[in-house]
Design brief:
The structure holds 2 protein chains of 2 kinds.
Chain A (H helix, E strand, L loop, with lengths): L3 E10 L2 E11 L4 E6 L5 H8 L7 E10 L2 E2 L5 H7 L4 E4 L3 H4 L6 H12 L4 H14 L5 H5 L8 H13 L5 E5 L7 H18 L2 E5 L3 H7 L2 E6 L2 E6 L1 H7 L3 H8 L11
Helix pairs in contact in A: 4-5, 5-7
Chain B lengths: L6 E13 L5 E13 L3 E6 L5 H8 L7 E6 L2 E2 L5 H8 L2 E4 L3 H4 L6 H11 L8 H11 L16 H14 L4 E5 L7 H18 L2 E5 L3 H4 L5 E6 L2 E7 L3 H4 L3 H8 L40 H5 L5 E4 L2 E3 L11
Parallel strand pairs in B: 3-8, 3-9, 6-7, 7-8
Antiparallel strand pairs in B: 1-2, 1-4, 4-5, 9-10, 10-12, 11-12
Helix pairs in contact in B: 4-5, 4-6
Classes of the chains: A alpha/beta, B alpha/beta.
The complex binds adenosine-5'-triphosphate, adenosine-5'-diphosphate, iron/sulfur cluster (SF4) and magnesium ion (MG) (2 copies).
The site of iron/sulfur cluster has 12 residues of chain B, from loops.
Amino acid sequence: MALLDIQNIDVSYGRHLTVKDCSIELEQGQICSVVGESGSGKTTVIRAVLGLLPGGGEVTRGDIVYDGKSLLKLSKREWRALRGHDISMIFQDSGAMMNQTRLIGGSFVEYIRTHEGISKQDAWKKGAEMLSRMRLPDPDRIMRSYPFQLSGGMRQRVGIAMGMTYQPKLLLADEPTSALDVTTQAQIVRQMMELRDEYGTSIIIVTHDIGVASYMADRVVVMKDGRIEDQGNRDHILNHSENEYTRRLIAAVPSLGGKRYV
Amino acid sequence: MFEDSEVLLEARHVTRRFPTSSGKELIACNDVNLKLYRGKTLGLVGESGCGKSTFMRFLVWLDKPTEGEIIYHGQDITKLKGKALHEMRQHIQMVFQDPSTSFNPKMKIRDIVCEPLLNYHRIRRSEKDRKARELLQMVDLPGDFADRYPHNMSGGQRQRVAIARALALEPEIIVMDEATSALDVSVQETIIQLITKLQREKNITIGFICHNLGFIQSFSHQIAVMYLGNIVEVMPGDQLSQVCCHPYSKALLNAVFDTKMDFSKKIEPIKGEPPSPLDVPAGCPFQDRCEHCKDRCRHEKPVLTEIGPGHEVACHLYGKGAEA
Ligand SMILES: Nc1ncnc2c1ncn2[C@@H]1O[C@H](COP(=O)(O)OP(=O)(O)OP(=O)(O)O)[C@@H](O)[C@H]1O
Ligand SMILES: Nc1ncnc2c1ncn2[C@@H]1O[C@H](COP(=O)(O)OP(=O)(O)O)[C@@H](O)[C@H]1O
Ligand code: SF4
Ligand SMILES: [Mg+2]
Ligand SMILES: [Mg+2]
């Protein structure tokens, strides 16, 4: 049985149908990359899985089944136990999601303490340890900083550290490395793969970096205009797809020593 | 470095220190010397937190260096005030890493893109609607988006709005901080085609921060690599992969994921941790992670030295006194 089964969902924002008939199946330990047009609904799908659609957003058709259970019917309480623990998310822009008036450490401690009955000191230690596993220098300085005092990439790594704290069974990552440089990106990609290899975490990663998408994925999903335009394994998508949009997308990938515009 | 082009803006010995709560100071930019040439693009790359945004923010008066000067049209722009500053501001525009925090969420897109034009009395209120549509279409967004609010758009769409707003004033210099990282590659390509076209037509100078080397080399005339606040290599954009020689720049090149790479290869990020920006070692900032580190690297800091046309590097392996 699949760990996550997104079954023919439609998602609307108010009266506007944004995602149409989207289905993705994910086995335990599988990694699925979602690529495609910006504005095509990638974030929307991920947020729907997590029950975190912004105001006015709603799954209007289909079902999302996790571990045999429909996620659309969960109570607030059931969500609190699941979200951030079994199912975790890394946002496109963790910086903007953070409370700007609180120390990073304060937010991290609170996050840990919603999932685990440990003391503030222990939670602080655990948070700092996660930060150092993300290769962030000076975890203590970071814990004692406000979000605005960190660079965008550092804030993003803090968000990633939080998302990985409980070795989730399912990790939903929305452009986790867009704001990161290539070396940090390589580190994060490696860490996500290790999470999968060691704990069997299933991952959906949305990314515009087709190189990263291909490297990580067992399966690649291409989205366009609210629909799944194409899907298949890496080799199929990169080399054999007959879908016109997929081919256009692959052709636009910038590469070293490739096309120059000036 | 470009015989056919004048230096439009020059940063000289620019340093920025931030005080921290522990009392130590953090040097986000350390003696940075860079030139922007008219009509050319400078690409700035480096690890997150290395000081790229800190540097580019000086150019748009969001921050001031603690030391050094930035010369533009014969003036040190870090010293401008009042009316002179207001006038100068319209010529240098910036697109941010994260447009969601730079937009007023209560403003419609129409007002957001036209705001700078109104500020500088370039258009009348009655022209707003037409102008907004025109600007949106320039970045391939439907004109109807003028009626939306920023939170009703995807990240990539918001980023295009930010680009449209920055281009509205037809600035002389445009600074883009990770401006396309949130866009899919085909839109990214369109935006680059767009800005390089505008660059050719209007001779715009661009400062571009980006982490994707494959991407940045596709449109940069000059590429500068930054590490822990220091510029460690500057090279001509069209020869990046051939001439790049600083051990850190090479490590950056090796960390690029490519669609043609060997997917079974285990990725090897640079070894070690970047040192804390509060404890930058004496000598070369890259020493603890460098495979070629020698005794000299531990006590003598390498300075940027020209080793080829338009190619400068700060590493003891190259230039004067290099050990073969
Ligand atoms: N206002 C501030 N107060 C204290 N420290 C700061 C402040 N702004 C930046 N810093 C520090 O300066 C360093 C450089 O930050 P900067 O935002 O310029 O990095 P960056 O290269 O743009 O990184 P990224 O690619 O992640 O955006 C970081 O160590 C950061 O924590
Ligand atoms: N809160 C919202 N209200 C109305 N429309 C929205 C909202 N959020 C996103 N949209 C629209 O939904 C579409 C998909 O957005 P999104 O899921 O963010 O795309 P992606 O992440 O693929 O860039 C876009 O056309 C966007 O304008
Ligand atoms: S100066 Fe020495 S330590 Fe620094 S990059 Fe060059 S060889 Fe490596
Ligand atoms: Mg998105
Ligand atoms: Mg930055």
